[in-house]
Amino acid sequence: MKKLLLGNAAFARGLxxxxxxxxxxxxxxxxxxxxxxxxxxxxxxxEWAPNEKVAMEAALxxxxxxxxxxxxxxxxxxxxxxxxxYTAAYTGVNGGLVIAVADDxxxxxxxxxxxxxxxxxxxxxxxxxxxxxxxxxxxxxxAFEISEKFDTPxxxxxxTRIAHSQSIVDCNDREERELLxxxxxxxxxxxxxxxxxxxxxxxxxxxxKLTEFAETSSLNRTEINEGTKKAVITSGASYQYAKEALGDxxxxxxxxxxxxxxxxxxxxxxxxxxxxxxxxxxxxVIETHCRKIGVNVKGKEIFGFIxxxxxxxxxxxxxxxxxxxxxxxxxxxxxxPVMCAGCPHRGVFYAxxxxxxxxxxxxxxxxxxxxxxxxxxxxxxxxxxxxSALHGFNKVRGAEAEKRSxxxxxxxxxxHSGITGLVNIAYNATNSTVIILDNxxxxxxxxxxxxxxxMNLKGDPAAAVNLEELCRAVGIxxxxxxxxxxxxxxxxxxxxxxxxxxxxxxxxxxPCALLKYVKHNPPLKVDQDKCKGCKMxxxxxxxxxxxxxxxxxxxxxxxxxCGICSELCKFDSIVNQ
Length: 577
What we know:
By secondary structure, the chain is an alpha/beta fold. Helix content is 37%, strand content 18%. The radius of gyration is 27 Å and the shape is globular.
C-alpha cells in the first residue's frame, strides 16, 4: 500500500508498524505532527506531557516495563530532556526506545539553530537521520531493532524540511509485539555511583559495537558514479539538496546513521577520489570526524555554519551556478507576523506598552508582543525563563524595578516550566508580578491540549489544573483574573499589582480567537463621519484595521468584534455594523 505522507506522518506510520505501544511528547514545531498522527492509531497510547523531560521519563518507564516506546520534541526540547537522556544511555532499555528530535536550520520557528547531533555524541547513544518520508518510516522501525539489539535509546534526527515535506511511502500492516518480561535489576536501572560506574563500561563497549555495526549497515550507503573524481559525504536533507544540485557529476556516501559514525567505510570511500566534500547543515560534525580519522575533506570553509542549505546554495558554491531570479517591476512589501485579529494577548501588551513596563517574555505566539507597533517585550530566552529571569532582574535592581517590570507567560508554557520559577519568586521573596496569558490552549504549535484545558491529546475529558489554586499553593497570596478584552480593567490590575508589596499573579483569561468553539461578536465598522484620522486604533497592531484616505477602516472578514479598538477611540467612531 502506497501513501503520500508528510515526513512526520511517515514517522508515525513507522511507530505504528513497528509495534510501538506508548507515546509521550511535548508539542514543538517541526516535530508536533508525529505525535498527533500517532494518536490516530488506536493501538498506540499517546499523550501530551507537561514538558519534554517528563515525556522522556514516561517513555523510558514504558520501555523498562517491556513496551516499545517513543517520545518526540524539537531541538530545544532535547535540552529540557537531556537529564533523563544522558542517564538512559547508561540504563539502556528493555522494550525499544525511540526519540525524535526535529532540528530547525534557518530558525523558521525557533530561537536558535542548535545541532542535536552533539547531544547524541555527548550522551553516547545511536542517532539516525532520514532523508525522505520513506526513510522516516523505515528508520523508525530500524531504530526499534537497534535499540533492543544494542540496549540503547535511539534518536532519530528530523529537520524542518524532512518533517514537513511529502513523498511516497510503502506502508505495511502493524507488527504487534507482546510486552517483554520485566526483571528487577538494580545494577542496570538504579543509577547510583556504584552501579553507574559499571554501566559506563557498558556504554563504551556498546559504542564500539555500534561503530562496527555502522561500517556495514544498509543505513549507510555509497553511490558510485563511474568516472567521477569528486565525492560528497552527506546525510538527511543535505543529501537531497546535493543530489538535485550535483546529479551524477559526483559520487556519494549517504550516512543514515550519524552517531556513531563509521571509520573504515569513510576511509575506503574517500580513498577512491581526488576530492571529498562534506555537505551538512549547521555544525561540522561529519567533517570533524573525517579529519579525526585521517580523511582530508572540505566542508565548512565552503558552506559555513549558519542557516539551512538548498539546491541553489550547493550549485552556487560548488558549480558557480546561480538560479535565475525573476524580478518584478513593483517592490512587494514585507508582511511580518502579527498577533491575530481578536488575539486576547493584545490588550495586555497594549497596557504594558502604554505604561512603559519592562517585560520579561517567554516562548509562544505572544512573543509577537515584542514587535511593532506594541514593542512590548524586553527579553525572550527559553521556555519558562520569563518568570525566573524576572526574579533575578528584580533582585539586583531592587524595589524600583519591582514596580516597573513584569513577566508574561502562556498557560501551556507555565505548565511546562514556569511553575518552578514562580516557586522561586515566592520562596526567595521578590515582589515580582507574573502575568499568565491563559488562552485555554497551546497556541503557537497548532492548538494542542495542555494540563489546564480539561482535555487530553485524544480529546477525552481530563483533570484540569486550576491556575488560581496552583499559584496560591506555591505561596502567592495575591492572585487575580482579568479579561484582556476589557482594557481599563486590565491596565488597572497591572498597575495595582506592581504597587503591591508582595509577589502577585495576574491571570489574563480569554480563549484564543482561532478556537473553533469560540463564538465571536459581529464585526465592527468605522463611522467615517466621526473618524478624525488620529490613528490611535493602529497602536493595537490589529491586522483588521488599516487606513484609507486618511481614515481608519475595519476589514469585516477579519474582525471578530472584540471591541478593544472601540475602547481606544475617543470619538466613538468605531461602532457595530
